[in-house]
Amino acid sequence: MLNLIFSLLFVSGWIFVSGSEVHTVTVQPGEDVTLQCSNISAYPTQTDWFRVVNKTKPSCVSSMYGSDSEASFCHGFGNRNFNMSSNVSFVFLQIKRVDLSDAGLYFCGFYISGHTVISNAVELRIQGKIGVNDIFICSYAFV
Ligand SMILES: *[C@@H]1O[C@H](CO)[C@@H](O)[C@H](O)[C@H]1NC(C)=O
Ligand SMILES: *[C@@H]1O[C@H](CO)[C@@H](O)[C@H](O)[C@H]1NC(C)=O
Ligand SMILES: *[C@@H]1O[C@H](CO)[C@@H](O)[C@H](O)[C@H]1NC(C)=O
Ligand SMILES: *[C@@H]1O[C@H](CO)[C@@H](O)[C@H](O)[C@H]1NC(C)=O
């Protein structure tokens, strides 16, 4: 786990994460952060970001279709500082000016062959708040 944390690259408030396991990123309140997950779909499809907070509360954050459609935001996220985008290889979720309530486990799902398949997960910790530890996602059927 430690070497995963050390593999994070911090560039002026932007954080890039690579790989397919659960990574942890830690930021200070007020910073911007960009989470990313690998695009595991071979074709354009419904792509979603999800979040679990307090270990038990999952919610949908945002969705887009393929790599260049406009993202739509789920209830509670549309008026916040969230931005979903993609460069085809990776799907990004930028959160501007994070606050403590943004902490949680973020992961994205791709609707592939009738199932929502989860790509990698990223745990976002906000300094000053204890993060969620060791949550394992087996499968989610949000559809
Ligand atoms: C998570 O737990 C904290 C502390 O109990 C609480 O203040 C917060 O509202 C909870 N968040 C959600 C989304 O339920
Ligand atoms: C969202 O991110 C994309 C890609 O980085 C960028 O082109 C776009 O301007 C951003 N939108 C907002 C509202 O920040
Ligand atoms: C997509 O973004 C990743 C992470 O920022 C970067 O490493 C990669 O080169 C980008 N790919 C393209 C095609 O721009
Ligand atoms: C994922 O990659 C496939 C194949 O290149 C592409 O068609 C699709 O639009 C990409 N999806 C996203 C969300 O970038």
From TrEMBL:
Record's subcellular location: Cell membrane
Record field: transmembrane: none
Pfam family, any one: V-set
Signal sequence residues: 1-19
GO terms classed as biological process: immune system process; response to bacterium
GO cellular component: plasma membrane
Keywords, alphabetical: Cell membrane, Disulfide bond, Glycoprotein, Immunity, Membrane, Signal
All residue ranges annotated as the Ig-like domain in the record: 20-108
Protein name, UniProt field: Ig-like domain-containing protein
Species the sequence originates in: Neolamprologus brichardi (Fairy cichlid)
